[in-house]
Specification:
The protein has 489 residues and is α/β, with parallel strands linked by helices. Helices cover 37% and strands 16% of the residues. It folds into three domains: 254 residues, P-loop containing nucleotide triphosphate hydrolases (Rossmann fold, 3-Layer(aba) Sandwich); 120 residues, no CATH class; 69 residues, no CATH class. It contains 14 helices and 14 strands. The strands form four sheets. Strands 2-3-4-1-5-6-7 form a seven-stranded mixed β-sheet. A three-stranded antiparallel β-sheet has the order 8-9-12, with no helix packed on it. A hairpin with a 5-residue loop joins strand 13 and strand 14. The structure holds guanosine-5'-diphosphate.
Length: 489
Amino acid sequence: MALSLTDIVEEARLSARALLDYGEHLFNPTVRLGVTGLSRAGKTVFITALIHGLTRGGRFPVFEAYASGRIARAGLAPQPDDAVPRFDYEGHLHTLIETRNWPNSTVDISELRLVIDYQRQNSADRTLTLDIVDYPGEWLLDLPLLNKSYEQWSQESLALSREKPRAPLAVQWHTHLATLDAKAKQDEQATLAAAKFFTDYLRACRDERFAMSLLPPGRFLMPGNLRGSPALTFAPLDVPAGGKAPDGSLWAMMVRRYEAYKDVVVRPFFRDHFARLDRQIVLVDALAAFNSGPEALHDLEAALAGILDCFRVGHSTLFSVLFRPRIDRILFAATKADHLHHANHDRLEAILRRAVSGAVAKAESTGATIDVAALAAVRATREAMVARGRDKLPSILGTPLPGETDGGETFDGNTEVATFPGDLPEDPEALFNGEASFRGLSSTAAEQSDFRFLRFRPPALECNGDGAPALPHIRLDRALQFLIGDKLQ
Ligand code: GDP
């Protein structure tokens, strides 16, 4: 691929950065762990639980270095990157433990440094520095835009918006689009209106009833400090993929802003954050997609393929000569497994494995080891056999958050209830082809009112084996073993 001047400058910067990082690695082994996932996938809860478990004594039997007592100490160190906000661990932990509420979700990138002193097997003690970088998955799904022209992106976005279940949500935007003449003189007000209708459409797709995942550009739904700026004020036009915008036209204005989005948002994210990661966990709210039916599941599948593509993009096309992203392990994790009975955890894992399998087969060239897990970073429920009529059914007990409703009842936040979450199908394929549904919900789930899980309050702390208060979890230790176990040998 021919490199443009921007790419070459970018590569030079990346290489300088990589050298700096490399020097630091030699002196002080460091793992930069990216934690990502779409909005509300569970990133904030995962990081808070992980740090709490490592620093205060979690119950982690499968995390070998920890379980065998080789970790002498784990503690927080000052956040190393001056331009990145610090992950508000203390605030989130306070909300989670003291008030037993869920902390505020990720809306921007943030970072935290953890220093782990450990005993090496048959050798001297060592320190591993773990930099945890939390960032919205929506930003990651922007990376493929780097290889797309405005016209290509417009055509793809339009095609997607004509499919089920998006089409009805796109009506207003499409109606406005039909009034626009791409070759007419540039017009700020028309652009503002188009961007607004397009953003409203993206937001409607993200609604939990539809749970669509693939919605670039990511900053349209999470604008942060760029809200209202021209780089975030554009929208697709119905223009041919290979066409060329006339000077001074509305079309040309959209192209300029689309390119600005790439320059101001996407490239800096790639260079300053994504390209520096060593390991990556991608959290997925798979249960929300199952609940919304097969279309949401296919959309999720496409988003996961898009995410894996990002790891490939870095390798094969974008910055190919001097620098390669160095991510060598990627874990896809289905979160909130505590909404299911444990008999279903393996099934949840199998379904996620099926959802990423196509993409994994394509993405051999990422050079990374990829695994899949079902977990709950914080387990808000417990299990019991509960009598229902003459039967005893495996059920989940939890305290619904105040204001949650079910079957006409509104909960006060202090009452524990039993729910029967139902079984996931044994054959993952059945969910994808719509033969099986989850919780008895069919593909028309979006039209029904009872389309989502009850949200439970976070649990009280439980004592671990040593009597230290710990947050209960499901398979968080397995995730840790995969993500950093080998670095603590
Ligand atoms: P983020 O947007 O990826 O940072 O998502 P959060 O970590 O804020 O999680 C979003 C919501 O999902 C939380 O407010 C909780 O309601 C729920 N959640 C996240 N992790 C868990 C978990 O391990 N168990 C349960 N029961 N709920 C969770």
